[in-house]
Amino acid sequence: KATGTAVDWIQMPGMKPGPDTIGTAAISHGGAGVAARAWGLVALEPGKIAEILKDRPAWLRDCRCLEIMGAFSTPGGGTVELIYTQMYASTTLASARDFWTLRYTTFVDDGNLVVCERSLNCANGGPSMKPATDFLRAEMLPSGYLIRPYEGGVCSIHIVDHMDLGSWKVLEIIRPLYESSAVLAQNTTLKALRYLRRISQEATGELVLRGQQPAVLRALGYRIARGFNDAVNGFKDDGWSALVSDGIDDVSVTINMTLSSKHLGAQLATSDRSLYSVGGGILCAKASMLLQNVPPATLIRFLRQHRSEWADSGLAAEDYQCLDGGAVCVGQMPFHSNHVAEEEEFLEVIKLEGHALNSGSGGLSRDTVLLQLCTGIDDNAVGACAQLVFAPVDTALSDDLPLLPSGFRAIPLDSGLDGYGLYRTLDLASMLEGGTENNKLSGLGGSACHSRSVLTMAFQFVFEAHNREEVAASARQYVRSVMVSVQGVAMALAPFRQGPQFGPRADALVLAHQVLCSYRASFGLELSETNAGNTDASLNVFWHHKDAIICCTWKTIPQVVFANRAGLEMMETTWSDLNIINWEKTFDESGRKTAYADFTQVIQQGFAYLPGGVRLSSLGRPAAYERAIAWKVVDSDQAMQCIAFLFLNWSFIA
Predict the structure, then answer these.
(1) What's this model's pTM, rounded to 2 decimal places?
(2) Which of 314, 565, 594, 596 has the most crowded Cβ, counting Cβ within 10 A?
(3) Nucleus: present as a keyword of the record (predicted)?
């Protein structure tokens, strides 16, 4: 597996050759489970490399623990170890995994150092132990490290990871996470190689530290990442227990009452420490959501740079008063930033302007300092997750105090081998900037149109004995508000995609021009004060119109086929998903009664003025509008193409 063809290897998509590359990587194509292989040169001694790699929790933050349950030496000078390993789940939608493995370390005849590891089970004499609570048993197929020393203190390292993660045991929607060798390569195999390279560069002086303390930075990064993983997973043996749902299953809430006020000193404001009493603890509200056509790196970069777009989610003052722990803050000001383990990962200190603690004019505002970890923001890293995790800190922070991290993790779900995630981010606005670039859309592959990712978010708050239910209710509301905000951000960032009714860019231009011309013919007025003039200008006017415009075909069941930016926002959808919207489900009960009469009126007289009402978005959120206008859209031969609806002064109902 390490040097030959025991696995059908193909080159890892997105790996760029060159002097700055960390090495080479390959992933399996077919065969059992998922597998990844990496190779690189490291200026460390073989024994040191093996020591680092065998201490998996030190460099792999997804590894919760690794325990050596027993060990013995072999006659040839090797070592055999029986190992139990627990791995965190990356989302709230699946269980964590554990392994029972046998690991063999030895020097072979040619002087190479080999570390081999594979799962044990009853069939080959392994322990017949059941998985721990909250875990599912996974299988490690033969994996390990081949370390070849060379003159000058340099070693080549071959790393192989081969696992069967039991993809059939998870929800179908996230099954690609457990079937993607690219995800395994990014999350495990390449992380090992990057970590070794970083340690080597620090040891040789190749990396300019500029006063940084890399070991301290790594320790802080480890603590904040591990704390977030603990929050997402909520293991019972850590003291977490679930609260009863409020009837809506989109947000789950867990509490941990094993941490005392002594342990939480750095997380609590001075004024709150005296209030913290027996019966208090930590509350975590978490959720996962599916996003489409937004690369994880793009989304996480935006969430980091525009905190006010999601953090200030319109909660009432009393809700903000209930929530403590630093997650509810806006107005960021970066203090300092340092790379932690690689160029795409950095740790920064940020000062946030807090909300007033009550709604009265005398309310005091509290500033919060966050330690923030940002990872995976390289757009070309195929299969890599991106995350933004932050925790409140103060000058009293010490090594024995747990952090309370909150944040986001976005993981790509598409596991195609055609380089998904490498497409250019292209929206309708970028089309408008270059009217002569008619091939902007046609160059996009099918995988680009349907990229999906799962976003997991978790927010931790401190509660007291007397206000647990209030904090839980406010936390649920806060996370739901953040979900809505992030959904809006994702739609704004989503690339423009043509619907199935319209192929190349020219068809979208023509239809937008027909919408405007048909409006002029029906009402004797221009839709916008801006002169459309030509087809390209028509698309500009259509897209940027302040009111929502939604077009649908007239069939037995109407189908949505076209919309401007405001229309997409009103429907809370993306361009590529317009056609899957059920038109009937966008009406409330009263609107459904008159829907077909409105269609008939437009068909008969060419247009209709409709009273104000309510429409439901694709997520079921009601949007009210003052009034609506509908007109028949025809081509140059007066053949009907669709019916356009314009909703004036619409807004979501709180």
Answers:
(1) 0.69
(2) 565
(3) yes
**Helix, strand, or coil (residue 9):** strand
Say which CATH class 505-652 falls into. Answer: alpha beta
In angstroms, the CA 549 to CA 540 distance is 13
Nearest to 562 by CA among 507, 619, 484: 507
The residue type found at 366 is: R
Mean of pLDDT over the chain: 78
Q: Which of 284, 285, 333, 289 is nearest to 308 (CA)?
A: 333
Residues 397 and 266: beta-carbon distance below 8 Å: yes
Joined together, the tokens standing for residue 335 give 């203090």
**Residue that is written with structure tokens 């009406």 in the block:** 587
Instruction: Report the range out of 263-272, 556-565, 608-617 with the highest average pLDDT.
Output: 608-617
Neighbours of 502 (CB within 10 A): 16
Question: What are 284's two structure tokens?
Answer: 């975590």
> How would CATH label the architecture of 221-419+456-493?
2-Layer Sandwich (3.30)
The answer to whether the beta carbons of residues 334 and 350 sit under 8 Å apart is: yes
9-207 topology per CATH: Alpha-D-Glucose-1,6-Bisphosphate; Chain A, domain 4 (3.30.530)
Q: What is the 3-state secondary structure (H, E, C) of 211-247?
A: CCCHHHHHHHHHHHHHHHHHHHHCCHHHCEEECCCCC
